[in-house]
Amino acid sequence: MYYLTKNRKIMKKISVLMAAFMAVCMSALADDVVSVNPNPVTVSPGDEFEIEIWVDNSKEIDGALYNGFQFDVFMPEGITVAMKIDEDDDLVIAREKGSLCKSTHAISAAEIANNGVRFFCVDQESNKTFKQSKGAVLIVKYNVSSELPSGEYTGKVTGELSTSNFQKVLVDNVEFKVLVVPTKINDVSASKQTKGIYNVAGQQVEMQKGINIVDGKKVIIK
User: Fold this and answer.
1) Which sign does the torsion angle of CA 180, 186, 189, 194 carry?
2) 105 and 203 share one domain
3) Cβ neighbours of residue 49 under 8 Å, at least 6 residues apart?
């Protein structure tokens, strides 16, 4: 009886560990097939910009491909969604610009906490999967506050993907960068000088890795 009880405890621990392992594997898999483009995004205060959320739909999951998603997209304070999420027209545009979506895929959205928007995508007719390629399933427009200081900010996507055989695959934490740079050199210089090399804080520097503003133009050095 002692050994039976002990074995049951051991099996229970193994089951818990296996479940945790599978959850980690599913999360890593989904994070590997979901990406945000461009990354980083380079903008200036007062700008409007778009991000594209991509899915690599070429990798089958137990013989099935992806056919829908729930994505929670979070932006830092000072960057707000420019789409009217309660109007179908904007969401139809987002769907039709997505290269992987088909005409029967419907997208809806709702605002959530922490400056986030939750997007849903389902097939309305016959459980159709996305087109078998890699590309955008969602394009979202954002506005940058004119008061947002220059610097590097982080956004993220979480949620889940669904497959045609009714599996749910976690998207744990896909991060992307938003680089906010001065609108023009005159904003950060006491003189009207526009020649030279500046960093995103408006300080004159030598050419360096990252964002450089050279003679008033943005240059990225990798």
Assistant:
1) positive
2) no
3) 41, 43, 141, 142, 144
13 φ/ψ angles, rounded to the nearest 5 degrees: -65, -40
H or E stretch including 73? Answer: strand 66-74
* Domain housing 81: 2-180
From first to last of its 222 residues, the chain has per-residue pLDDT tens of 433 344 454 444 434 444 443 443 443 345 578 999 999 999 999 999 999 999 988 877 777 889 899 999 999 999 998 877 777 777 766 666 667 888 778 888 888 999 999 998 888 777 788 887 888 888 889 999 999 999 999 999 999 999 888 888 899 889 999 999 987 544 444 344 456 787 776 777 888 877 778 877 778 776
Same-domain check for residues 124 and 141: yes
94 lies in the same domain as 84: yes
Burial label, 215 (beta-carbon count in 10 A; 0-12, 13-18, 19+): exposed
Whole-prediction pTM value? 0.68
93-105 core/surface letters (b: 16 or more CB in 10 A; e: else): ebbeebebbeeeb
Cα(30)–Cα(54) distance, rounded to whole angstroms?
11
The domain that holds 14 is classified in CATH as 2.60.40.680
Residues 147/76, Cβ–Cβ less than 8 Å: no
121 in the same domain as 28: yes
146 & 87 share domain = yes
Answer yes or no: do 199 and 92 share one domain: no
